[in-house]
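Example with several molecule types.
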Amino acid sequence: MGRNGKLSNVYLAVVFAILYAPIAYLIFYSFNSGGHMRGFEGFTLEWYREVFADTRLLIIVLNTFIIALLSSAISTILGVAGALAIYHVRRKRTKNTLLSLNNVLIVSPDVIIGASFLILFTMIGIKLGFTSVLLSHIAFSVPIVVIMVLPKLQEMSPTLMDAARDLGAGSWQILTRVVLPYVKPGIFAGFFMALTYSLDDFAVTFFVTGNGYSTLSVEIYSRARQGVSLSINALSTLLFLLTVLLVVGYYFINRRAARIPAGGKGLRP
Amino acid sequence: MQTKASTRNAYLIPYVLWMVLFVVAPVLLVIYYSFFDVEGNFTLGNYVRFFTPVYMQMTLSSFWYAFLITAFSLLISYPTAYMLTRTKHKQLWLLLIILPSWINLLLKAYAFIGLFGTYGLTNSLLEVVGIGTQQILFTDFSFIFVSVYIFIPFMILPIFNALEEMNPSLIYAARDLGASSWLTFRRVIFPLTISGVKSGCQAVFIPALSLFMITRLIAGNRVITLGTAIEQHFLVTQDWGMGSTIAVFLIIAMAVIMFLTGSGKKEVRNGKKRKTV
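Resulting C-alpha coordinates for the full complex:
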Protein backbone atom coordinates (compact mmCIF):
# COMPACT_ATOMS: atom_id res chain seq x y z
CA MET A 1 0.00 0.00 0.00
CA GLY A 2 2.86 2.34 0.92
CA ARG A 3 4.36 3.00 -2.48
CA ASN A 4 0.99 2.69 -4.14
CA GLY A 5 -0.55 5.20 -1.78
CA LYS A 6 2.20 7.69 -2.49
CA LEU A 7 1.79 7.30 -6.23
CA SER A 8 -1.94 7.83 -6.04
CA ASN A 9 -1.43 10.91 -3.90
CA VAL A 10 0.84 12.34 -6.55
CA TYR A 11 -1.73 11.56 -9.22
CA LEU A 12 -4.51 13.21 -7.24
CA ALA A 13 -2.30 16.22 -6.58
CA VAL A 14 -1.67 16.61 -10.32
CA VAL A 15 -5.38 16.39 -11.10
CA PHE A 16 -6.15 18.99 -8.46
CA ALA A 17 -3.38 21.23 -9.70
CA ILE A 18 -4.72 21.13 -13.25
CA LEU A 19 -8.29 21.67 -12.10
CA TYR A 20 -7.36 24.74 -10.14
CA ALA A 21 -4.64 26.10 -12.42
CA PRO A 22 -6.85 28.33 -14.58
CA ILE A 23 -8.65 29.74 -11.57
CA ALA A 24 -5.41 30.47 -9.74
CA TYR A 25 -4.02 31.98 -12.91
CA LEU A 26 -6.96 34.33 -13.28
CA ILE A 27 -6.83 35.42 -9.67
CA PHE A 28 -3.07 35.92 -9.72
CA TYR A 29 -3.12 38.19 -12.76
CA SER A 30 -6.09 40.18 -11.52
CA PHE A 31 -3.51 41.98 -9.37
CA ASN A 32 -1.09 42.62 -12.21
CA SER A 33 -0.47 46.27 -12.95
CA GLY A 34 0.95 45.33 -16.35
CA GLY A 35 -2.44 44.94 -17.96
CA HIS A 36 -1.80 41.55 -19.52
CA MET A 37 -1.49 37.92 -18.49
CA ARG A 38 2.21 37.39 -19.20
CA GLY A 39 4.71 38.30 -16.56
CA PHE A 40 3.73 39.95 -13.33
CA GLU A 41 4.76 43.59 -13.15
CA GLY A 42 3.43 44.88 -9.92
CA PHE A 43 0.60 44.63 -7.45
CA THR A 44 -2.43 46.78 -8.09
CA LEU A 45 -6.11 46.92 -7.25
CA GLU A 46 -6.78 49.02 -10.32
CA TRP A 47 -8.78 46.30 -12.08
CA TYR A 48 -11.07 45.91 -9.11
CA ARG A 49 -11.62 49.62 -9.09
CA GLU A 50 -12.41 49.41 -12.78
CA VAL A 51 -15.01 46.70 -12.18
CA PHE A 52 -16.77 48.80 -9.58
CA ALA A 53 -16.62 51.90 -11.75
CA ASP A 54 -18.13 50.11 -14.75
CA THR A 55 -21.84 50.90 -14.39
CA ARG A 56 -22.80 48.84 -17.40
CA LEU A 57 -21.05 45.79 -15.98
CA LEU A 58 -22.65 46.30 -12.58
CA ILE A 59 -26.07 46.48 -14.17
CA ILE A 60 -25.33 43.24 -15.98
CA VAL A 61 -24.26 41.61 -12.72
CA LEU A 62 -27.48 42.83 -11.14
CA ASN A 63 -29.48 41.46 -14.09
CA THR A 64 -27.80 38.11 -13.70
CA PHE A 65 -28.66 37.91 -10.03
CA ILE A 66 -32.25 39.05 -10.53
CA ILE A 67 -32.75 36.42 -13.21
CA ALA A 68 -31.10 33.75 -11.06
CA LEU A 69 -33.13 34.50 -7.93
CA LEU A 70 -36.45 34.93 -9.73
CA SER A 71 -36.05 31.91 -11.96
CA SER A 72 -34.95 29.62 -9.16
CA ALA A 73 -37.78 30.77 -6.89
CA ILE A 74 -40.40 30.21 -9.58
CA SER A 75 -38.89 26.95 -10.75
CA THR A 76 -38.77 25.69 -7.17
CA ILE A 77 -42.53 26.22 -6.86
CA LEU A 78 -43.20 24.58 -10.20
CA GLY A 79 -40.72 21.81 -9.51
CA VAL A 80 -42.24 20.95 -6.15
CA ALA A 81 -45.65 20.81 -7.80
CA GLY A 82 -44.13 18.59 -10.46
CA ALA A 83 -42.54 16.24 -7.95
CA LEU A 84 -45.82 15.99 -6.06
CA ALA A 85 -47.64 15.35 -9.32
CA ILE A 86 -45.28 12.54 -10.31
CA TYR A 87 -45.39 11.15 -6.78
CA HIS A 88 -49.17 10.95 -6.77
CA VAL A 89 -49.54 9.40 -10.20
CA ARG A 90 -50.44 5.78 -9.66
CA ARG A 91 -50.22 4.42 -13.19
CA LYS A 92 -46.72 3.28 -13.97
CA ARG A 93 -46.88 4.23 -17.63
CA THR A 94 -47.93 7.80 -16.94
CA LYS A 95 -45.30 8.10 -14.26
CA ASN A 96 -42.56 6.93 -16.60
CA THR A 97 -43.74 9.24 -19.35
CA LEU A 98 -43.62 12.19 -17.00
CA LEU A 99 -40.18 11.19 -15.77
CA SER A 100 -38.80 10.86 -19.28
CA LEU A 101 -40.27 14.20 -20.27
CA ASN A 102 -38.64 15.64 -17.20
CA ASN A 103 -35.31 14.25 -18.31
CA VAL A 104 -35.47 15.64 -21.81
CA LEU A 105 -34.34 19.08 -20.73
CA ILE A 106 -31.71 17.66 -18.42
CA VAL A 107 -29.92 15.61 -21.01
CA SER A 108 -30.46 17.65 -24.12
CA PRO A 109 -27.55 19.82 -25.17
CA ASP A 110 -27.85 23.48 -24.34
CA VAL A 111 -27.55 24.40 -27.98
CA ILE A 112 -30.75 22.56 -28.75
CA ILE A 113 -32.55 24.03 -25.76
CA GLY A 114 -31.41 27.49 -26.80
CA ALA A 115 -32.30 27.09 -30.46
CA SER A 116 -35.71 25.56 -29.77
CA PHE A 117 -36.56 28.27 -27.25
CA LEU A 118 -35.53 30.89 -29.75
CA ILE A 119 -38.04 29.42 -32.20
CA LEU A 120 -40.68 29.14 -29.49
CA PHE A 121 -40.37 32.72 -28.28
CA THR A 122 -40.36 34.08 -31.80
CA MET A 123 -43.48 32.05 -32.60
CA ILE A 124 -45.47 33.16 -29.55
CA GLY A 125 -44.20 36.68 -30.04
CA ILE A 126 -42.27 37.15 -26.82
CA LYS A 127 -39.70 39.87 -27.23
CA LEU A 128 -36.17 38.64 -26.67
CA GLY A 129 -34.75 40.11 -23.50
CA PHE A 130 -35.57 39.86 -19.81
CA THR A 131 -38.76 37.81 -20.22
CA SER A 132 -37.32 35.28 -22.64
CA VAL A 133 -34.20 34.77 -20.55
CA LEU A 134 -36.25 34.41 -17.37
CA LEU A 135 -38.65 31.92 -18.95
CA SER A 136 -35.90 29.76 -20.37
CA HIS A 137 -34.00 29.73 -17.09
CA ILE A 138 -37.16 28.62 -15.31
CA ALA A 139 -37.67 26.00 -17.99
CA PHE A 140 -34.33 24.31 -17.56
CA SER A 141 -34.42 24.62 -13.76
CA VAL A 142 -37.81 23.00 -13.17
CA PRO A 143 -36.63 19.45 -14.02
CA ILE A 144 -33.62 19.87 -11.75
CA VAL A 145 -35.84 20.82 -8.82
CA VAL A 146 -38.11 17.86 -9.57
CA ILE A 147 -35.13 15.52 -9.50
CA MET A 148 -33.94 16.89 -6.19
CA VAL A 149 -37.36 16.77 -4.51
CA LEU A 150 -38.75 13.49 -5.85
CA PRO A 151 -36.32 11.12 -4.06
CA LYS A 152 -37.12 12.85 -0.77
CA LEU A 153 -40.83 12.33 -1.40
CA GLN A 154 -40.27 8.70 -2.20
CA GLU A 155 -38.25 8.28 0.97
CA MET A 156 -41.16 9.56 2.99
CA SER A 157 -43.27 6.86 4.57
CA PRO A 158 -46.85 7.07 3.21
CA THR A 159 -48.14 6.18 6.66
CA LEU A 160 -47.21 9.70 7.73
CA MET A 161 -49.81 11.10 5.38
CA ASP A 162 -52.36 8.46 6.34
CA ALA A 163 -51.83 9.25 9.99
CA ALA A 164 -52.31 12.96 9.36
CA ARG A 165 -55.49 12.24 7.42
CA ASP A 166 -56.79 9.98 10.18
CA LEU A 167 -56.22 12.77 12.62
CA GLY A 168 -58.43 14.97 10.52
CA ALA A 169 -55.97 17.01 8.49
CA GLY A 170 -57.15 18.39 5.17
CA SER A 171 -55.11 18.14 1.97
CA TRP A 172 -53.70 21.62 2.47
CA GLN A 173 -52.70 20.86 6.03
CA ILE A 174 -51.09 17.59 5.01
CA LEU A 175 -49.12 19.43 2.37
CA THR A 176 -47.91 22.30 4.53
CA ARG A 177 -47.53 20.51 7.85
CA VAL A 178 -46.33 17.07 6.83
CA VAL A 179 -45.08 16.80 3.27
CA LEU A 180 -43.29 20.09 2.72
CA PRO A 181 -41.38 20.05 6.03
CA TYR A 182 -40.29 16.51 5.25
CA VAL A 183 -38.93 17.29 1.80
CA LYS A 184 -37.47 20.65 2.81
CA PRO A 185 -33.84 19.56 2.29
CA GLY A 186 -34.69 18.53 -1.26
CA ILE A 187 -36.43 21.82 -1.89
CA PHE A 188 -33.43 23.78 -0.65
CA ALA A 189 -31.04 21.69 -2.69
CA GLY A 190 -33.22 22.17 -5.76
CA PHE A 191 -33.44 25.91 -5.28
CA PHE A 192 -29.71 26.14 -4.80
CA MET A 193 -28.92 24.08 -7.87
CA ALA A 194 -31.33 26.12 -9.95
CA LEU A 195 -29.59 29.23 -8.70
CA THR A 196 -26.14 28.05 -9.71
CA TYR A 197 -27.31 26.80 -13.07
CA SER A 198 -28.91 30.09 -13.81
CA LEU A 199 -25.84 32.06 -12.73
CA ASP A 200 -23.64 29.84 -14.84
CA ASP A 201 -25.67 29.43 -17.97
CA PHE A 202 -24.24 30.68 -21.18
CA ALA A 203 -25.45 28.65 -24.13
CA VAL A 204 -29.19 28.92 -23.60
CA THR A 205 -29.01 32.57 -22.60
CA PHE A 206 -26.84 33.36 -25.61
CA PHE A 207 -29.64 32.26 -27.92
CA VAL A 208 -32.48 34.11 -26.24
CA THR A 209 -30.96 37.41 -25.06
CA GLY A 210 -31.46 39.49 -28.16
CA ASN A 211 -29.95 42.94 -28.31
CA GLY A 212 -29.50 45.25 -25.38
CA TYR A 213 -30.03 42.69 -22.67
CA SER A 214 -27.10 40.72 -21.36
CA THR A 215 -26.12 38.43 -18.54
CA LEU A 216 -22.68 37.96 -17.15
CA SER A 217 -21.65 34.89 -19.16
CA VAL A 218 -22.76 36.45 -22.41
CA GLU A 219 -20.89 39.62 -21.52
CA ILE A 220 -17.73 37.72 -20.61
CA TYR A 221 -17.96 35.86 -23.90
CA SER A 222 -18.11 38.99 -25.95
CA ARG A 223 -15.31 40.60 -23.93
CA ALA A 224 -13.12 37.51 -24.12
CA ARG A 225 -13.50 37.46 -27.88
CA GLN A 226 -12.11 40.97 -28.00
CA GLY A 227 -8.99 39.88 -26.17
CA VAL A 228 -7.57 39.95 -22.71
CA SER A 229 -8.74 42.52 -20.20
CA LEU A 230 -7.75 42.23 -16.60
CA SER A 231 -11.03 43.59 -15.33
CA ILE A 232 -12.46 40.21 -16.33
CA ASN A 233 -9.86 38.66 -14.06
CA ALA A 234 -10.88 40.90 -11.21
CA LEU A 235 -14.51 40.08 -11.82
CA SER A 236 -13.79 36.37 -11.92
CA THR A 237 -11.92 36.58 -8.64
CA LEU A 238 -14.94 38.18 -7.03
CA LEU A 239 -17.22 35.55 -8.57
CA PHE A 240 -14.94 32.77 -7.39
CA LEU A 241 -15.13 34.04 -3.82
CA LEU A 242 -18.90 34.23 -4.09
CA THR A 243 -19.08 30.71 -5.48
CA VAL A 244 -16.93 29.35 -2.68
CA LEU A 245 -19.24 31.03 -0.18
CA LEU A 246 -22.29 29.53 -1.87
CA VAL A 247 -20.74 26.08 -1.98
CA VAL A 248 -19.75 26.21 1.66
CA GLY A 249 -23.27 27.32 2.52
CA TYR A 250 -24.75 24.54 0.45
CA TYR A 251 -22.42 22.00 2.02
CA PHE A 252 -23.55 22.95 5.50
CA ILE A 253 -27.24 23.04 4.60
CA ASN A 254 -26.84 19.60 3.11
CA ARG A 255 -25.01 18.27 6.12
CA ARG A 256 -27.36 19.74 8.64
CA ALA A 257 -30.47 18.81 6.74
CA ALA A 258 -29.72 15.18 6.20
CA ARG A 259 -27.12 12.85 7.52
CA ILE A 260 -27.65 10.65 4.52
CA PRO A 261 -24.44 9.86 2.66
CA ALA A 262 -25.90 11.88 -0.16
CA GLY A 263 -23.24 14.49 0.55
CA GLY A 264 -21.74 15.05 -2.83
CA LYS A 265 -24.41 13.23 -4.73
CA GLY A 266 -26.77 16.08 -5.18
CA LEU A 267 -24.04 18.33 -6.41
CA ARG A 268 -23.78 19.19 -9.93
CA PRO A 269 -22.88 18.05 -12.69
CA MET B 1 -60.59 9.15 -2.05
CA GLN B 2 -62.48 11.91 -3.78
CA THR B 3 -60.36 14.67 -2.31
CA LYS B 4 -57.18 12.78 -3.04
CA ALA B 5 -58.01 12.51 -6.72
CA SER B 6 -58.70 16.22 -6.97
CA THR B 7 -55.46 17.25 -5.25
CA ARG B 8 -53.55 14.94 -7.49
CA ASN B 9 -54.94 16.71 -10.52
CA ALA B 10 -54.18 20.07 -8.98
CA TYR B 11 -50.47 19.28 -8.83
CA LEU B 12 -50.45 17.93 -12.35
CA ILE B 13 -51.95 20.98 -14.01
CA PRO B 14 -49.11 23.51 -13.64
CA TYR B 15 -46.43 20.93 -14.17
CA VAL B 16 -47.89 19.32 -17.26
CA LEU B 17 -48.71 22.72 -18.74
CA TRP B 18 -45.12 23.76 -18.23
CA MET B 19 -43.80 20.53 -19.72
CA VAL B 20 -45.98 20.81 -22.79
CA LEU B 21 -44.99 24.41 -23.38
CA PHE B 22 -41.26 24.06 -22.75
CA VAL B 23 -40.44 20.46 -23.54
CA VAL B 24 -42.89 19.10 -26.06
CA ALA B 25 -43.56 22.27 -28.04
CA PRO B 26 -39.89 23.24 -28.58
CA VAL B 27 -38.97 19.78 -29.83
CA LEU B 28 -41.94 19.74 -32.20
CA LEU B 29 -41.07 23.23 -33.41
CA VAL B 30 -37.51 22.18 -34.17
CA ILE B 31 -38.77 19.27 -36.22
CA TYR B 32 -41.34 21.53 -37.94
CA TYR B 33 -38.76 24.18 -38.83
CA SER B 34 -36.38 21.59 -40.27
CA PHE B 35 -38.74 21.36 -43.26
CA PHE B 36 -38.42 25.00 -44.28
CA ASP B 37 -35.75 26.78 -46.25
CA VAL B 38 -34.44 30.31 -45.66
CA GLU B 39 -37.32 31.88 -47.61
CA GLY B 40 -39.88 29.98 -45.59
CA ASN B 41 -40.94 27.50 -48.26
CA PHE B 42 -41.68 23.92 -47.40
CA THR B 43 -38.80 21.71 -48.51
CA LEU B 44 -36.96 18.51 -47.87
CA GLY B 45 -33.81 20.20 -49.11
CA ASN B 46 -32.30 20.59 -45.68
CA TYR B 47 -32.25 16.87 -45.21
CA VAL B 48 -30.73 16.37 -48.65
CA ARG B 49 -28.15 18.99 -47.80
CA PHE B 50 -27.30 17.32 -44.53
CA PHE B 51 -26.19 14.23 -46.44
CA THR B 52 -23.80 16.14 -48.68
CA PRO B 53 -20.09 15.59 -48.01
CA VAL B 54 -19.65 18.96 -46.28
CA TYR B 55 -22.15 18.24 -43.53
CA MET B 56 -21.28 14.56 -43.34
CA GLN B 57 -17.64 15.39 -42.79
CA MET B 58 -18.57 17.88 -40.12
CA THR B 59 -20.76 15.32 -38.38
CA LEU B 60 -18.04 12.70 -38.52
CA SER B 61 -15.37 15.01 -37.18
CA SER B 62 -17.76 16.16 -34.49
CA PHE B 63 -18.25 12.56 -33.42
CA TRP B 64 -14.53 11.90 -33.58
CA TYR B 65 -13.74 14.85 -31.32
CA ALA B 66 -16.50 13.87 -28.93
CA PHE B 67 -15.12 10.36 -28.84
CA LEU B 68 -11.60 11.58 -28.11
CA ILE B 69 -12.83 13.92 -25.41
CA THR B 70 -14.87 11.16 -23.77
CA ALA B 71 -12.01 8.67 -23.96
CA PHE B 72 -9.48 11.03 -22.41
CA SER B 73 -11.92 12.12 -19.73
CA LEU B 74 -12.56 8.51 -18.81
CA LEU B 75 -8.86 7.71 -18.80
CA ILE B 76 -8.15 10.50 -16.35
CA SER B 77 -11.32 10.28 -14.29
CA TYR B 78 -11.47 6.60 -13.48
CA PRO B 79 -8.18 6.49 -11.55
CA THR B 80 -9.05 9.81 -9.92
CA ALA B 81 -12.44 8.56 -8.75
CA TYR B 82 -10.87 5.32 -7.57
CA MET B 83 -8.20 7.08 -5.57
CA LEU B 84 -10.72 9.51 -4.17
CA THR B 85 -12.71 6.67 -2.66
CA ARG B 86 -9.52 5.63 -0.86
CA THR B 87 -8.86 8.99 0.76
CA LYS B 88 -9.83 9.84 4.30
CA HIS B 89 -12.16 12.79 3.83
CA LYS B 90 -13.51 11.63 0.50
CA GLN B 91 -16.67 13.73 0.50
CA LEU B 92 -14.62 16.84 1.08
CA TRP B 93 -12.15 15.94 -1.67
CA LEU B 94 -15.00 15.19 -4.01
CA LEU B 95 -16.46 18.57 -3.25
CA LEU B 96 -13.11 20.14 -4.09
CA ILE B 97 -13.05 18.27 -7.40
CA ILE B 98 -16.50 19.56 -8.21
CA LEU B 99 -15.90 23.11 -7.02
CA PRO B 100 -14.14 24.27 -10.22
CA SER B 101 -17.15 23.15 -12.23
CA TRP B 102 -19.20 25.76 -10.38
CA ILE B 103 -17.01 28.51 -11.69
CA ASN B 104 -18.43 30.07 -14.76
CA LEU B 105 -17.30 28.10 -17.75
CA LEU B 106 -16.59 31.20 -19.74
CA LEU B 107 -14.10 32.35 -17.16
CA LYS B 108 -12.19 29.10 -17.29
CA ALA B 109 -12.08 29.18 -21.06
CA TYR B 110 -10.86 32.73 -20.83
CA ALA B 111 -8.14 31.66 -18.39
CA PHE B 112 -6.95 29.08 -20.89
CA ILE B 113 -6.58 31.79 -23.50
CA GLY B 114 -4.02 33.28 -21.14
CA LEU B 115 -2.44 29.98 -20.13
CA PHE B 116 -2.03 28.71 -23.66
CA GLY B 117 -1.26 32.02 -25.31
CA THR B 118 1.99 32.74 -27.08
CA TYR B 119 3.41 34.40 -23.97
CA GLY B 120 1.40 32.33 -21.50
CA LEU B 121 2.50 30.10 -18.68
CA THR B 122 2.64 26.92 -20.75
CA ASN B 123 4.91 28.45 -23.33
CA SER B 124 7.18 29.91 -20.67
CA LEU B 125 7.48 26.42 -19.21
CA LEU B 126 8.23 24.94 -22.62
CA GLU B 127 10.86 27.61 -23.07
CA VAL B 128 12.50 26.67 -19.78
CA VAL B 129 12.45 22.97 -20.62
CA GLY B 130 14.07 23.80 -23.91
CA ILE B 131 11.32 22.87 -26.33
CA GLY B 132 10.70 26.48 -27.20
CA THR B 133 7.54 28.41 -27.87
CA GLN B 134 4.79 26.51 -29.61
CA GLN B 135 1.48 27.51 -31.07
CA ILE B 136 -0.86 25.92 -28.54
CA LEU B 137 -3.93 28.05 -28.68
CA PHE B 138 -6.18 27.46 -31.68
CA THR B 139 -5.06 23.88 -32.17
CA ASP B 140 -6.79 20.54 -31.80
CA PHE B 141 -4.69 19.90 -28.75
CA SER B 142 -5.91 22.95 -26.89
CA PHE B 143 -9.49 22.23 -27.88
CA ILE B 144 -9.38 18.67 -26.57
CA PHE B 145 -7.42 19.64 -23.48
CA VAL B 146 -9.84 22.36 -22.43
CA SER B 147 -12.86 20.20 -23.20
CA VAL B 148 -11.47 17.33 -21.15
CA TYR B 149 -10.69 19.79 -18.40
CA ILE B 150 -14.28 20.92 -18.37
CA PHE B 151 -15.78 17.45 -18.46
CA ILE B 152 -13.58 15.66 -15.92
CA PRO B 153 -15.78 16.46 -12.90
CA PHE B 154 -18.85 15.21 -14.72
CA MET B 155 -17.10 11.92 -15.41
CA ILE B 156 -15.66 11.56 -11.92
CA LEU B 157 -18.93 12.02 -10.08
CA PRO B 158 -20.92 9.05 -11.46
CA ILE B 159 -17.88 6.76 -11.32
CA PHE B 160 -17.23 7.83 -7.74
CA ASN B 161 -20.84 7.08 -6.83
CA ALA B 162 -20.68 3.68 -8.50
CA LEU B 163 -17.46 2.83 -6.65
CA GLU B 164 -19.02 3.93 -3.38
CA GLU B 165 -22.04 1.73 -3.91
CA MET B 166 -19.90 -1.31 -4.57
CA ASN B 167 -19.68 -3.80 -1.74
CA PRO B 168 -16.01 -3.85 -0.62
CA SER B 169 -16.23 -7.43 0.59
CA LEU B 170 -16.33 -8.48 -3.06
CA ILE B 171 -12.82 -7.13 -3.48
CA TYR B 172 -11.63 -8.92 -0.35
CA ALA B 173 -13.20 -12.10 -1.64
CA ALA B 174 -11.39 -11.77 -4.96
CA ARG B 175 -8.13 -11.16 -3.14
CA ASP B 176 -8.71 -14.16 -0.88
CA LEU B 177 -9.29 -16.31 -3.90
CA GLY B 178 -5.87 -15.29 -5.18
CA ALA B 179 -6.68 -12.70 -7.81
CA SER B 180 -3.99 -10.11 -8.51
CA SER B 181 -4.82 -6.40 -8.24
CA TRP B 182 -5.13 -6.11 -11.99
CA LEU B 183 -7.34 -9.19 -12.24
CA THR B 184 -9.51 -7.90 -9.38
CA PHE B 185 -9.89 -4.63 -11.16
CA ARG B 186 -10.64 -6.15 -14.53
CA ARG B 187 -13.00 -8.88 -13.37
CA VAL B 188 -14.61 -7.40 -10.27
CA ILE B 189 -14.28 -3.65 -9.81
CA PHE B 190 -14.68 -2.45 -13.37
CA PRO B 191 -17.69 -4.64 -14.26
CA LEU B 192 -19.42 -3.59 -11.06
CA THR B 193 -18.92 0.08 -11.74
CA ILE B 194 -19.78 -0.06 -15.43
CA SER B 195 -23.06 1.75 -14.77
CA GLY B 196 -21.13 4.73 -13.48
CA VAL B 197 -18.79 4.63 -16.46
CA LYS B 198 -21.76 4.52 -18.81
CA SER B 199 -23.55 7.45 -17.27
CA GLY B 200 -20.26 9.35 -17.15
CA CYS B 201 -19.67 8.73 -20.84
CA GLN B 202 -23.21 9.80 -21.56
CA ALA B 203 -22.75 12.95 -19.52
CA VAL B 204 -19.64 13.80 -21.53
CA PHE B 205 -20.30 12.56 -25.04
CA ILE B 206 -23.58 14.36 -25.69
CA PRO B 207 -22.42 17.82 -24.59
CA ALA B 208 -19.08 17.22 -26.34
CA LEU B 209 -20.99 16.81 -29.59
CA SER B 210 -22.58 20.16 -29.11
CA LEU B 211 -19.77 22.31 -27.77
CA PHE B 212 -19.79 25.66 -29.39
CA MET B 213 -18.28 28.32 -27.23
CA ILE B 214 -15.00 26.47 -26.68
CA THR B 215 -14.60 25.98 -30.40
CA ARG B 216 -14.74 29.73 -30.86
CA LEU B 217 -12.53 30.83 -27.99
CA ILE B 218 -10.01 28.02 -27.80
CA ALA B 219 -10.02 26.32 -31.17
CA GLY B 220 -10.31 29.56 -33.10
CA ASN B 221 -13.12 28.31 -35.36
CA ARG B 222 -10.87 25.54 -36.63
CA VAL B 223 -13.06 22.87 -35.11
CA ILE B 224 -16.68 22.82 -36.14
CA THR B 225 -18.97 20.63 -34.13
CA LEU B 226 -22.67 20.02 -34.58
CA GLY B 227 -23.24 22.58 -31.85
CA THR B 228 -21.16 25.21 -33.63
CA ALA B 229 -23.06 24.55 -36.83
CA ILE B 230 -26.41 24.94 -35.13
CA GLU B 231 -25.36 28.17 -33.49
CA GLN B 232 -23.97 29.45 -36.77
CA HIS B 233 -27.19 28.70 -38.64
CA PHE B 234 -29.43 30.19 -35.99
CA LEU B 235 -27.56 33.30 -35.01
CA VAL B 236 -25.31 34.16 -37.93
CA THR B 237 -26.74 33.01 -41.24
CA GLN B 238 -30.33 33.00 -39.90
CA ASP B 239 -30.99 29.76 -41.76
CA TRP B 240 -33.20 28.32 -39.05
CA GLY B 241 -34.34 25.46 -41.27
CA MET B 242 -30.87 24.02 -41.73
CA GLY B 243 -30.04 24.69 -38.10
CA SER B 244 -33.15 22.78 -37.07
CA THR B 245 -32.24 19.91 -39.36
CA ILE B 246 -28.86 19.57 -37.70
CA ALA B 247 -30.60 19.83 -34.34
CA VAL B 248 -32.93 16.99 -35.33
CA PHE B 249 -29.92 14.82 -36.10
CA LEU B 250 -28.31 15.80 -32.84
CA ILE B 251 -31.49 14.80 -31.00
CA ILE B 252 -31.50 11.45 -32.82
CA ALA B 253 -27.83 10.93 -31.97
CA MET B 254 -28.60 11.76 -28.38
CA ALA B 255 -31.44 9.27 -28.22
CA VAL B 256 -29.23 6.55 -29.71
CA ILE B 257 -26.44 7.25 -27.23
CA MET B 258 -28.85 7.23 -24.34
CA PHE B 259 -30.26 3.95 -25.54
CA LEU B 260 -26.78 2.45 -25.92
CA THR B 261 -25.57 3.61 -22.54
CA GLY B 262 -28.85 2.49 -21.05
CA SER B 263 -30.11 5.47 -19.15
CA GLY B 264 -32.01 4.00 -16.26
CA LYS B 265 -33.75 5.71 -13.41
CA LYS B 266 -30.63 5.24 -11.36
CA GLU B 267 -28.43 7.66 -13.19
CA VAL B 268 -31.14 10.22 -13.09
CA ARG B 269 -31.09 10.10 -9.32
CA ASN B 270 -27.49 11.14 -9.33
CA GLY B 271 -28.77 14.46 -10.48
CA LYS B 272 -26.16 14.61 -13.14
CA LYS B 273 -26.84 17.41 -15.41
CA ARG B 274 -23.84 18.34 -17.36
CA LYS B 275 -23.38 22.00 -17.68
CA THR B 276 -21.71 22.91 -20.83
CA VAL B 277 -21.68 25.01 -23.80
